[in-house]
Amino acid sequence: MEAILGPIGEFWEGFLSNPIVQLASQLIVIYVVLLWLGTAYWAFRDMQARTENPILPYFAAALIIFFTPLLFLFAVVLFLIVRPRETLAEVYERSLAEESLLAEVEKNELCPVCRDRVDSDWLVCPNCRTRLHRVCPSCNRLAEPTWSLCAFCGTDFGRESSKAARQSGRSAAAVESAEAADNVTSGADATAEHARLRGATNT
Ligand SMILES: [Zn+2]
Ligand SMILES: [Zn+2]
């Protein structure tokens, strides 16, 4: 027994006292310690990305430190199990996606009057004839009926419609005066006056 163990023990002692082996083992120890501290820092940053709580990241780092350089891998497993599933960025992204989905659903709109499904680019509800959109007179794009000016080209619908009202008012006045002329004058004179007025209205 002694004869077998003796040479092995000698070899082992020689191996451990070898300066290269000593240097390598020291480097390994330093590396493991760095890995331990780095993992604690990683847990801190990871927790920061997953919670708005200012204290929890320190707890995560403390958990890794507490498990010592020898056992910290167990702490990593534990941390991976209990940490919040989503990062704050992922939560934000998901809420954005949900919002846009909701907006998409809302865009697939219903007629405000009869609640029938209507397309977002329809002018009139085919079911109840409610006006859904108007066409901008300037750029010919669809404008919401509630807009006071065109969102695409900036045309002021209020001014447009008042101009149109003024125009129709003027033609109404022209018709009135033409009728008055009809009443006063007679025959060919009235017809000529009527034609003149109509010409004036058209220009
Ligand atoms: Zn309708
Ligand atoms: Zn326009």
Indicate the topology.
Elements: H1 2-17, H2 19-50, H3 56-66, H4 68-82, H5 88-107, E1 134-135, E2 142-143, H6 157-184, H7 187-202
Antiparallel strand pairs: 1-2
Helix pairs in contact: 2-3, 2-4, 3-4, 6-7
The chain binds zinc ion (ZN) (2 copies).
Describe the structure concisely for a colleague.
The protein is mostly helical. It is 68% helix and 2% strand.
Describe the structure.
Helices cover 68% and strands 2% of the residues. The chain is mostly helical and 203 residues long. A two-stranded antiparallel ribbon has the order 1-2. A hairpin with a 6-residue loop joins strand 1 (134-135) and strand 2. The protein is rod-shaped and about 110 Å long. The chain contains seven helices and two strands. Bound molecules: zinc ion (2 copies). One zinc ion (ZN) binds at residues 111, 113-114, 116, 125, 127-128, 130. Residues 136, 138-139, 141, 150, 152-153, 155 line the site of one zinc ion.
Content of β-strand: under 5%
Bound molecules: zinc ion
Q: What's the total number of strands?
A: 2
What is the mean predicted local confidence, pLDDT?
82
Low-confidence stretches: 178-187
Helix content: 55-70%
- Counting copies of identical and different chains, the oligomeric state is single chain
Q: How are the strands of the largest sheet arranged?
A: 1-2
Tally of helical runs: 7
Please, how many domains?
Answer: 3
> How far apart are the termini?
127 Å
**CA-based gyration radius:** 43 Å
